Amino acid sequence: MSICDEGVGIKHSLGIFAGSRSTVDSPRKSPYAGLMQLHAPPERVPIETDADGVIRVGGTRVTLDTLVAAFDAGATAEEIAQQYDSVTLADVYSVIGYYLRHQSDVRAYLAERQKQAAQSREEDERRFDPKGVRERLLARRR
Q1: What string of DSSP letters covers 37-64?
Q2: Where do the domains of the chain lie, and which CATH numbers do they carry?
Q3: 103-127 vs 64-72: helix crossing angle, rounded to 10
Q4: pLDDT tens digits, 16-44
Q5: pTM of the predicted model, to two decimals?
Q6: 121 φ/ψ sector (left φ>0, alpha ψ -120 to 50, else beta)
Q7: Phi, psi at residue 23, to the nearest 5°?
């Protein structure tokens, strides 16, 4: 058996390749027959949408926007987990994996969030004129 065939045998015995073409006819003929099979059930991505439509990570107040921005800025999963200690490292990796697999959807969500933030900011500035705020606050101190 060659190294290549042995690798296929290992993958086949672990149940990783379903219907793969290997020279090993069945896992029973494999030298790894009888090993515990690895069954990895799908895991839920630890993100939830709150009442305001904001996606948060791992049941915390940390937003998907924040985590993606940190990752896009070059932060590692470990650095992100250290910076936002309420999020577990496993959740950071899971969310980054989700982001990498669904970049177009996540980017569309982020673009919509930026658009909503700009609209909110404009509305607030119309309602509460920011001009002269510093002077008004300083005048209240006196």
Answers
A1: P--------SEEE-TTS-EEETTSS-BH
A2: 1-41 (no CATH), 47-133 (1.10.10.10)
A3: 110
A4: 344 444 444 455 577 777 788 888 889 99
A5: 0.65
A6: alpha
A7: -80, -10
